[in-house]
Amino acid sequence: MSAATITAPVAKPGAAExxxxxxxxxxxxxxxxxxxxxxxxxxxxxxxDVLLMPIIFILLFVYVFGGAIAGKGNQQxxxxxxxxxxxxMMGMNxxxxxGTGVNEDFRKGVMDRFRTMPIARSSVLxxxxxxxxxxxxxxxxxLLGMGFLLGLEIKGSVLEFVGAIVLSTVFGxxxxxxxxxxxxxxxxxxxxxGMAMLVLMPLQFGSSIFAxxxxxxGWLEGFTKVNPLSNLADAARNLLGGHGPLAHPTLITLxxxxxxxxxxxxxxxxxxxxxx
Length: 276
Description:
Elements: H1 22-42, H2 48-70, H3 75-108, H4 110-115, H5 121-149, H6 158-185, H7 189-205, H8 218-226, H9 228-241, H10 247-275
Helix pairs in contact: 1-5, 2-3, 2-5, 3-5, 3-6, 3-7, 3-9, 5-6, 6-9, 6-10, 9-10
Keywords: Antibiotic resistance, Cell membrane, Membrane, Transmembrane, Transmembrane helix, Transport
Membrane topology: Multi-pass membrane protein
Main location: membrane
């Protein structure tokens, strides 16, 4: 669905975003969310990463690496360890798609149409975040579904189970602002993906997502302790397992999410305004 379906009068050049009220801003966000959702409906292939990535990753790590990490025949124990960690990984991988999507919108001229409309520039980016959160929740549901098929047991309460999903979603949403800023800064979607992978790989594998950190070299183990993905994975693991410390990893994860959002969201919105 094209951006032209958003019914709004043409704005005068230099119209101030600050004049737009909260109700109008929410209405614009809703219209843009609908536009992005209809784009997915008309291009279902864009959901392949969400639908297939959790399945491929969990099968790969459980049956290829699970025996080496947890011991042969102990793959089910590894499922208990892996799935909560992969909840942290899902958010980071889905977040990368936001940056490429924003970059492609600029290259296709979609943002030129938004520039003529009296809408808050931030509403365009927030709508992207909302849709990607929906994609993230779908990926998380598929991941958990595969985990249940492979023997995952939820030992925590329903509230703790929901808390693990919410914590992963909040942190993933914060990461999206980083990739939006990256998408607004570099020239091509390929550059966004290339630079994102340079960040994703060390953070994912230098964490407690896939393996306990006790077997790592001292310098790498020290890095994992400050890696926010390790704290998120540990918090989700303790929430789903119903035991283990919760306050420290949860608070550290929330602090990272708030800090990332506080720094990168204003920078992304400012960069977006300067480009439009």
